[in-house]
Amino acid sequence: MLITKNIIASIHCLGVILSVFWTNSAHSQAPGNPIKVTPLAITYSKLNGLPDQTIYDLLQDKQGFIWLATEKGIFRFDGKQFKPFRSDFQNSLAGASLRQDAKGRIWYENFDGYLFYVENDSLKTIPNQQPSGFYAIAMNRKFVYIHRKKALLAYDLSQLKPSHFLKLNDELISDVSTKDSTLVFADYNQILLLNNESSPSLKKIITPSINAPLRIHATPSSIFFCPKNNETGKIYEAKNNRITAIPNSLKKGLINRITVENNRLFLLTTDGVFVFDFDGKLWQEKEHWLPGTSILSLLKDASGSIWLGTQNKGLLAIPDPSKQLIFNPPYLQLQKIIPTQKGFLGAGAQGQVYLFNPQLQLLEQIYQDPDSLPFISIKLDEQNQLLFLSAKHSSIYHIPSKKTLSQNAYSQKDICKIDDHFYLIGTSNNAYLLKNPVPPNSAPGSNWNALYEQSASIDFLNHSGLQSNIRVRAVSALNSLNLAFIASNRGLFIHSPKQKGELKFRKNGLFLQTLLQDNNEIWGLSQKGELLLIEPLDAQTFKISQIRKNTSYTAIKLGPKGVVLIDPVACLYLEKETHNVLAEVNLNHFGLQLLDAFASNEELYMLTNQGWLVKNLSNKEPARPGRFHVYGLNGNQKNFTPKQPIRLPWNKNSLDIHFYWFPGIGPNEDGIAYKINQSNWNYIENEARNIHLEALNPGDYQITFKTGSKIWTNEAVYFSIEQPFWRELWFILGCALAGIGLISWFYFKRLKSIEFKNKLSTEKLILEKELNHSRLSSIRAQMNPHFFYNALNTIQAYIFQKDPENAIDYLNKFSKLTRMILDFSDKESVSLENELESLRMYLDLEKMRFTDQFDFSLTCDVRDTEMIKIPSMIIQPYVENAIKHGLMHLKNGRKLIVSITEKDQFLEVRVDDNGIGRKKAGELNQIKQNRHQSFSTMANEKRLQILNRGLNKKVLVEYIDKTNPSGAALGTTVILRIPLFQ
Questions:
Q1: Dihedral class, residue 113 (left if φ above 0, else alpha if ψ from -120 to 50, else beta)
Q2: Which of 83, 140, 78, 85 minimizes the C-alpha distance to 108?
Q3: What is the rounded distance in angstroms from the CA atom of residue 237 to the CA atom of residue 243?
Q4: Beta pairing partners, 295
Q5: 273: helix, coil or strand?
Q6: What angle do CA 769, 770, 776 make, to 5 degrees?
Q7: What is the pLDDT of residues 747-784, one digit of tens each?
Q8: Mean of the pLDDT values across residues 436-457?
């Protein structure tokens, strides 16, 4: 048997292949020709993940996992993977006697007699054990019993410590079973009952007259037993203190185990499984499964499937024992089948043709190819009882006369009947018209006669070439329209008695491998697996419909209700009119190869490489769901149980959900899907056994699961993702308060800024007012009455001295200086050139007033005096002070030096005089109480304070009092530094 390479694909297949009702009740044994049957089983081996080929024991736990005790230890199967459980203190791995206690722990005993258990996914053992060999363990709610020398040692399951001993008369306990809540033990010649957990004791209940190790199985009403090495071939039932032998036809041999499930007794032997049914009165042998296979263990799981552990042949899963494979006798080697009105014909691998009745019983062999070669093609004309065969030669065989009517050398690919007089034959290089070798006498003439006569073949008698130089794959005909269809390597051609042409679909050629005629329609299967329906509207117009596309099917057959599509591992039966699926079968994961199939009115027959499968079309078995269970969740680096409350932080918002899934029996049980809250279903791969949910948004979640059409509401998972702190109420309120505070702070800050700007604007206005006032004060200082009085006196003196030229010159300079001062009064800054011109004019007037008693020097070592701007009339007050307060008090030799240079981005102005000094001048001013002389200096200092506000580079004034070594005043030097700006 072929073995599937994918364990999940095997489980996946259950829901599809076994969604139908298989029948074998109609196929009873005929005298002298028994029909053997065996359940359809999936095989797990090392090729698809099974860790070991020998399975000593099987158990399904409360969660639904399948546990296996093998030569390599114990394993847990979740429908996808086999998980091993091992520990460092195992002296040997092989063992059996799997049990589960009330706490969910899985127990097993290795073949050295040591007891182990699995708890929290870890294999553990009981310390300080002293085993006396391997004997089956027994377990009730409080204790686990293990064999010791002539005794049973009880371990308390709550404390995992020895509790008490029960003495035995013999060394051996050969088997153990459970009857209700009591334990039943088998010895060499007695069966013992342990029925009191509070004060346990053994009580002998049966004494068989068998001095040998026994196999037992206890039910609520009976105890079944037989010798382990069954020399007599007998099975016994002890019921109501009476022992009865069950009639059977067992061969003598080793009995591995007895078990009873739903009124069926299973005897596990080295020669397969013997199945007994109870009819209400007697147990009778009904079936023999897997002859030649040693069966060590049997488990019926929660979904009704039966699992068999074998010796060296792996694990077998029987989804439903009633779905059975009917064996063909090995010598038949059937490869093709042809339905007839009374049964069917079967073509063998060595050129045989057999006749079978509808009950699959062989009636007779009706033909044998002389070369014993398999058939390339075989067709039946049931009306004329003609077989058209093609192996080494192409032959026409007449069944009633058992004669070969003709034989030709061409390779026949396909043949169909055109009318009562002609057949259409397709070969590897031609299409022929063939005359009927047994035409009916009363048949009307044929429309194809003229075409046949035109090209009658010389090479093949009774043949006429219809189309040459093509490789024909299939032929068909519609007699009502006089149309013949030829599917070839060059396309699909249509012939009538008068013309021919090519039929295309969507402007492309049709390359079909099969053609079938059904009334006035033609079914075709393309090389790509497309199923097409060709419906002629008349002899020249056709409607072509694509029923299925891109399938894996390689052959089609017509049935009473529709068309059967066949591929090497699957079969599909479609209804004619609606194209709905009447039946669908997939054999891939059962290790069977589908060779051929056909349908009757009530059943679908499928021929496999190992026997027959028969599906009843009218019996719709209700779906029996499989078993789905969520057993674990992982999130935030923690493990959770499905029913506990789960809350995950917002930044660790991923969750893994682990589940197992054993598909059940019935339709629509294939496919696993889940949905989050009320969203759409999300389908996952059938081999998947966990779901990873990532980057979940905060909120409450419900994960619901569906397999096929069943929604597992009890297995829904509930959990929550916490809101991030910025979505919490306290954080939102805090942010709101902080926002209000920030806005308030910004508002008041802005308000203060506006107030400050208003204050600056006010101060600026005040400063501008003060600056203008200081400028006017400075102007007034220059244009005070004393200055005008001195100027007018000087002019008057020139007039009295009859010196009109100097008077006019002085008057011109005075008027020009006065005009310039008035012009400067409206300007904050003037060019250095204008300032020098006004200053020189002032000094000239002062020199003329002092005649020859005053001398001055004005120099400027600066480039671009026109471009340099300075505050207006900023130098003149210091020159005036030098004259009025320093030089005026000298009688002769008055000197004033004014020099202007450019130094380090400053304009440096030096006003140097040789006057009496600032100290002496101050004393004189105080004596004279002359306040006018200090007014211009004070005004100018105030002006400088105003100008320097807000400036990085300020206008600086430095006074240097010059003295001789004895301390006498030699004059004053004023240094004025003005920042350069243009």
A1: left
A2: 85
A3: 6
A4: 310
A5: strand
A6: 90
A7: 888 888 888 888 877 877 777 666 655 555 554 454 45
A8: 82
Residue type, 535: E
| DSSP assigned state of 622 | P
Number of H helices, E strands in the chain: 9, 75
Two structure tokens written together for 359: 């009950």
If you count them, how many residues does the chain have? 982
Q: Look at residues 477, 502, 478, 501 and name the one whose alpha carbon lies nearest to residue 424.
A: 477
How would you list the strands of the sheet with 412-417, edge to edge?
412-417, 422-427, 430-435, 463-468
Q: Which DSSP string corresponds to 658-674?
A: EEEEE--BSTT---EEE
Q: Report in angstroms the alpha-carbon separations of 184 from 162, 207, 818, 871.
A: 21, 13, 142, 125
Q: Are 502 and 494 in contact (CB under 8 A)?
A: yes
pLDDT, tens digit, for every residue of 914-945?
988 888 888 877 776 544 445 556 667 777 77
Could you say which DSSP state residue 727 is in? G
Q: What is the mean pLDDT of residues 731-739?
A: 86
**Residue for token pair 């629509």:** 668
Whole-angstrom Cα distance, residue 767 to residue 943?
A: 10
Give the bridge partners for 63, in sequence order. none
The residue behind tokens 């059962």 is 590
Q: Give the pair of three-digit tokens for residue 914.
A: 């040789």
Q: Which of 626, 632, 659, 668 is nearest to 81 (CA)?
A: 659
Report the b/e string of 170-197 with b at 16+ CB within 10 A.
eeebbbbbebeebbbbbbbbbbbbbbee
Helix, strand, coil distribution of the chain in percent, nearest 5: 20, 45, 40
Query: In this structure, are strands 562-567 and 555-558 parallel, antiparallel, or unpaired?
Result: antiparallel
Task: Report the Cα 479 to chain-centroid distance in Å.
Answer: 56
In order, the DSSP letters of 845-888 are HHHHHSGGGEEEEEEEE-S-TTT-EEETTSSHHHHHHIIIIIIT
| Structure-token pair, residue 251 | 């061969």
pTM, two decimals, is 0.64
Say what angle helices 729-782 and 804-824 make with each other, to 10 degrees.
170
Supply φ then ψ for residue 884, to 5 degrees: -75, -35
DSSP string, 426-477: EESSEEEEEE-SS--TTPPP-TTHHHHHHTB-SSSTTEEEEEESS-EEEEEE
**What's the rounded Cα separation, in Å, for the pair 550 and 567?**
13
Token pair for 25: 């009740």
973 vs 966: CA distance, rounded Å: 19
Sole residue written with tokens 């870890």: 122
The answer to whether the beta carbons of residues 626 and 642 sit under 8 Å apart is: no
Token couple for 302: 């929660």
Q: Using 50, 70 and 90 to split pLDDT, how confident is the model at 870?
A: confident
Distance CA 189, CA 195 (A): 20
For residue 348, report the phi and psi dihedrals to the nearest 5 degrees: -90, 170
Q: What are phi and psi of 632, to 5 degrees?
A: -170, 150
324-327 β-sheet, strand order: 37-39, 324-327, 611-616, 603-608, 594-599
Positive/negative CA dihedral, 781, 787, 788, 789: positive
Contact at 8 Å (CB) between 686 and 12?
Answer: yes
Question: What's the rounded Cα separation, in Å, for the pair 251 and 231?
Answer: 9
The answer to whether residues 451 and 497 touch, using CB atoms and an 8 Å cutoff, is yes
* Three-state SS letters, 232-260: CCCEEEEECCEEEEECCCCCCEEEEEEEE
What pLDDT digit, counting tens, does each position of 49-107 carry?
899 999 999 999 988 889 999 999 999 998 888 999 998 888 889 999 999 999 999 99
Do β-strands 242-246 and 362-368 pair in parallel, antiparallel, or remain unpaired?
unpaired
